[in-house]
């Protein structure tokens, strides 16, 4: 699990793609406006926490928590 919540993040670095065994990514309470493209390269990811961001677009994921966004 990697938690990057509450960091005022607007994007994620491409280097996160090296975390091929990452299963849970917590990026709640940031300033993301879309699901960062690097997320799609995380082949073991099963859970993605995104609530309290500024998300406007969605894609298919196994688990997706998107409460408190303007969708």
UniProtKB/TrEMBL annotation:
Domain of life of the organism encoding this protein: Eukaryota
Keywords: Leucine-rich repeat, Repeat
Gene3D superfamilies cross-referenced by the UniProt entry: Ribonuclease Inhibitor
InterPro entries referenced in this protein's UniProt entry, alphabetically: Leu-rich_rpt, Leu-rich_rpt_typical-subtyp, LRR_dom_sf, LRR_domain-containing, LRR_R13L4/SHOC2-like
Pfam family, one: LRR_14
Name of this protein: Disease resistance R13L4/SHOC-2-like LRR domain-containing protein
GO cellular component assignments: cytoplasm
SMART domains: LRR_SD22, LRR_TYP
Keyword Signal: no
Domain Disease resistance R13L4/SHOC-2-like LRR: 2-66
Organism whose genome encodes this protein: Caligus rogercresseyi (Sea louse)
